[in-house]
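User: quick one - fold this with (3S)-3,7-diaminoheptanoic acid bound?
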Amino acid sequence: MRLETVEPVRLADYRPSDYAIDTVDLAVAFHEAETTVTATLALRRRDGTPPGAALLLDGDDITLGSVAIDGKVLPPETYTAAPEGLILQSPPADPFRLTLVTVLDPAANTKLMGLYRSNGVWCTQCEADGFRRITYFLDRPDVLSVYTLRMEADRAAAPVLLGNGNRVEAGDLPDGRHFAVWHDPWPKPAYLFALVAGDLAAKRDTFVTASGRTVELGIYVEHGNEGRIDYAMDALKRSMRWDEEAYGREYDLDVFNIVAVSDFNMGAMENKGLNIFNDKYVLADPDVATDSDYAGIEGVIAHEYFHNWTGNRITCRDWFQLCLKEGLTVFRDQEFTSDMRSRPVKRIADVRTLRSHQFPEDGGPLAHPVRPDAYKEINNFYTATVYEKGAEIVRMLKTLIGDDAFRRGMDLYFDRHDGDAATVEDFVACFAEASARPLDDFMLWYRQAGTPVVEIAETYDADARTYRLAFRQTVPPTPGQPRKAPMVIPVRFGLVGSNGADMTYQAAEGAEVRDDVIVLTEARHEVVFHGVAERPVPSLFRGFSAPVKPQLQSAPSDLTFLMRHDSDSFNRWQAASSLAMTMLVAGAEAVRGGATPRIDPGFLDALDETVANPSLDPAFRALMLAVPGENDIAREIGENVDPDAIATAHRTLRAAIGARMETTLAHVVSDASAAGDGPFRPDAAGAGRRALVNAALDLLSATGRIEVLEAVERRFDSATNMTDRVAALSILVHRHAPGAAAALDRFHARYGHVPLVVDKWLAVQATAPDTGTLDRVKALTTHPSFSFRNPNRTRALVGSFANLNPTQFARPDGAGFGFVADTVILLDEKNPQVAARIVTSFRSWRSYEPRRRALAEAALHRIAAKPGLSRDVGDIVERTLA
Ligand code: B3K
Ligand code: ZN
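Assistant: Sure. Structure tokens for the protein plus (3S)-3,7-diaminoheptanoic acid:
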């Protein structure tokens, strides 16, 4: 495919479909060799469609059996059928029933879109455009229909038959076959359709809603995983309760099922009443899952469940509005986790993710607005920008209008748009109405790509007792958007006095200043605070109140002061992070010039004091110890990047922390072992304690002392949970401990039969920062535990290598780029969506130093030149090179 020839779909061209489909009746017959689907669609002209207007249905790789209208088979000359679409030239003027028979081969469907087989289980993935791989359809989110699904299969091969909605009938058929009928009363777009047929184990439970209805819950997994469902079930029930309490949203069907499958392109899918999950986000027990796996399960279960209202009951008019459901639902799952765990720790974690995933996207060739205005391949727009920046926009709305108006706006949204396929304008209008604040200027956040930079300068006038903050914002140019207008930026702030407490002031002018929020609306503001008793230390963008890059030339002493005293935990962490970043950027520069990086002893003192402070949450202390990563430093440097110099600076700082804080870190470790493990609990407190100890060990080992590595090896063998075991393994491998190779073998011997744990084994090896890694990764592609057919395995090995091993991916000889390009070319034949994701690891290629830049560019051109490249990969490569 030559991608230049693919016409983009444009938001400006949106118009409703000519026809509506009120009901869909599907009969699916599963057989080992093939699956037949008989779809009967009740079609009707929409108002304004002239009688006889041609009907164009979407298709993708469809093998058609027959077409009938109102029960009469159509002669072939009355329609045009191709794998990618069906055209009825002159359909009946009155409502009619169109019956389509299609024949599918799910086992051959390696794209994992539409109906496919995962480890013997038939399952579906229809978002964004997979339903058209099952039958011809108006496959767009604004066509809502009521679905009834009848499935029949061999009872032995597929004792479990699940669909959306409620099960209304089931029974036996001759020849060992059986059937089930599912009906979903809620009209929905095709992307929310799902079915599952297979031999699965289940755990059942019930949930009683606030209004007293009992909902049957089921979580289905492959046999052998029955013992790993409890945590997911608990997370589901907590999510259901939380949505009632926080948003007044109750569940609306008699059953809610979750199915975990092992081959899945992304995390999970919110199909109505039948969520289908990547098993990584369901299965857990302490022996196989880490604390971050548990947190991931809790967050994704909540996210998909919350979609029942934000996504399903209110869906999107078109795919440009994707952030309407995704940004909002990410915001809701973030809030859920904050309520379940620690709010500041969750906020820091989310901001780290935003910076590591969204900022590079926003600052590179793939930058796009949270609501894009054109796309060639919609599946490439399930991005950090749509999801994470989309969530930041909702958070800013809340900060701007306040908690109460935000809640009223949400209520209004649910009330007014229930059952609709809505737009971002519909959503924002509810908040403008609820708060009586016009939000037209705020809409820019949806339209303008790029991360705003906010430069800040401060002056204190002791005689006049005034304190001035001068703000200047610029939004960098991004593809297709050379010039930008100023954005509405809420700056949550405090003026911290010398006693560490927030100071009061008498008045503020120069911008809208409300309580603890300054609202910037212009390119420049000078905000003057009157009656300020002493020069304050400014604490700005508390809680990261806007997704921007603040630039304030703070004295290091101001930052260490905030590290110690800021009442806002996020900014305590941010102060440490900013100080470390300044040192790391200068350090990388020094290394390139042949000098040694300089470490600020004041930073080490403040860090030591914080980490030694037993009154602070261990999870927070662990985050304080996590200095910015190599990719973060590269992003900050921005151009002429040399990953090796960055890695050296990074290593030097971590070794300095390990050496200076040895006593404190050793105490952290010994206190924890004195306290003993106790029974494993995957809660925030337990996870925080483990995170702190593992961060301490990691830094102690950065000094390279052999006793530390020996202690880590003992810990590896005696660990009672996967968090500690894999943390130890990673230290051993990444620090080239003498026992590393043997530890890897012992790990595989113990867990080789648990695929999700094999992923950890693959990732630890793929992220080792040494020159032998590439050969090892290549060898692992032929290991019996690895398969390119499985997206989790592929991401664990190749994705980790490309995204989390900056020096080896960007080897100066280009072999890392070359390997990833080869993999993409190979994988594109089987699974274009997964391949396209991997190509995005090249998105920052222009910021490398010239030699690596040329090598990365050549690798990209090699992918682009592959004949028959998928639209998914072609689109990413084309935009990356543009
Ligand atoms: N809505 C799905 C993502 C679908 C991705 C399609 N390529 C999962 C989620 O965001 O909840
Ligand atoms: Zn989602």
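One thing worth noting: The mean pLDDT is 98.
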